[in-house]
Amino acid sequence: MSEAIKTDVLIIGAGPCGLFAVFELGLLDIKAHLIDILDKPGGQCAELYPEKPIYDIPGVPMVTGHGLTEALMEQIKPFNPTFHFGEMVEKVEKIGDPGFRVSTDAGKVFECKVVVIAAGGGSFQPKRPPVPGIEAYEGRSVFYAVRKMEQFRDKNLVIVGGGDSALDWTLNLHPLAKRVTLVHRRDDFRAAPHSVEQMRALVSSGQMDLRIGQITGLEGSDGRLSSATIKGNDNAVETIACDTMLPFFGLTMKLGPVAEWGIALENNLVPVETSAFESSVPGIFAIGDINTYPGKIKLILCGFHEGALMAQKAHRYVYPEKRLVFQYTTSSSSLQKKLGVS
Ligand SMILES: Cc1cc2nc3c(=O)[nH]c(=O)nc-3n(C[C@H](O)[C@H](O)[C@H](O)COP(=O)(O)OP(=O)(O)OC[C@H]3O[C@@H](n4cnc5c(N)ncnc54)[C@H](O)[C@@H]3O)c2cc1C
């Protein structure tokens, strides 16, 4: 076993809520390390919708998933958190009162006074459509997320699905791509009605294609796609030329090892009380999408609030002898010093 890395707080998950928790903890002189399975910060914002606009961050009329991640990273800079990317927390063991040993699948071991679970829906994985041989094209011609729209410029795209992601990316990529064909198994879409109307207008004016049916086969070589076979609902079979396919069949959120950490769970979520968002184990908190309590809504702004209250209680565990005096960043010269602004 490697030598344990010691820290006040260990945050599991570097999504928006884990990131903002660093800020709230930092204001109270509490140091944090963060671990994330992904190779970058931002959680769902960075992985699922980096280029989509978010309109409900208080005081920020519009910011993309990527923009919010960048802004949070800038905001927490003064507290110099340490990130451990590409690692999954496997084990959380109680070693003190409170005190925890946390280990990752990369063999790192941490010892901390407080654990903050900000693991969102756990590790999310796109659902793979039931198309024989699709694995051979994944990462070269078949993509389950759009990281950079430019990657799809001048491509002959087949987008598969009938939900918001399929429709949004059809509309967003249609101006860049050489041609877009949307394939959905029935002529009824779950996506926002406005997006469906826009898509139908593009189809009517001949600017893109719509096929109702299912992809039954892919053709190509060395991971490079050349065509896809579609079986229509009338059983007619058609082969269309394409070089890229984007299936949007939703995501499966795999909770992963959280279930084995000795905390109470309810429908794969961590039940918490709402004065500090602490779990059934004192010293283990859960904030953001991973927690549940009466009235919970999975919004980023709720996770930010939860982080602020969590930090107040975490202070008691990290500094049991110190009294916490509530201060505003606007007027406290001591907070401003920590932020490096005075
Ligand atoms: C398409 C889409 C649009 C959205 N739009 C909005 C919006 O407009 N406004 C809004 O408020 N919300 C929106 N949301 C929801 C918002 O993204 C989530 O509420 C938010 O991301 C939750 O943040 P989080 O930090 O709790 O979790 P996440 O963002 O899910 O991050 C959790 C992180 O934990 C990591 N992790 C999980 N398990 C482990 C482990 N065992 N070890 C290490 N790391 C682990 C994951 O890899 C992940 O990076 C949207 C979501 C989607 C999918």
Determine the number of helices (DSSP H or I, runs of at least 4 residues): 7
Taken from the alpha-carbon principal axes, the silhouette is elongated
User: Roughly what percent helix?
Assistant: 10-25%
Strands, count: 19
Rg from Cα: 23 Å
Biggest beta sheet summary: 7 strands, mixed
Instruction: Give the DSSP E fraction (strand runs of 2 or more residues).
Output: 25-35%
List bound small molecules: flavin-adenine dinucleotide
Give the end-to-end Cα distance, rounded to a whole number of Å: 43 Å
Taking all residues together, what is the mean pLDDT?
A: 94
Structural class: alpha/beta
Oligomerization: single chain
Describe the model.
With 342 residues, the chain is an alpha/beta fold. It contains seven helices and 19 strands. Strands 1, 2, 5, 6, 7, 8 and 18 form a seven-stranded mixed β-sheet that branches.
SSE arrangement:
Elements (H helix, E strand, L loop, with lengths): L4 E8 L3 H12 L4 E5 L6 H5 L5 E2 L8 E2 H12 L5 E4 L3 E8 L2 E6 L4 E9 L5 E4 L29 E5 L3 H10 L5 E6 L8 H12 L4 E13 L2 E9 L4 E5 L2 E4 L3 E4 L15 E2 L12 E3 L4 E2 L7 H19 L14 H7 L3
Parallel strand pairs: 1-2, 1-8, 2-5, 8-18, 10-11, 10-15, 11-12, 17-19
Antiparallel strand pairs: 3-4, 6-7, 7-8, 9-16, 12-13, 13-14
The structure holds flavin-adenine dinucleotide (FAD).
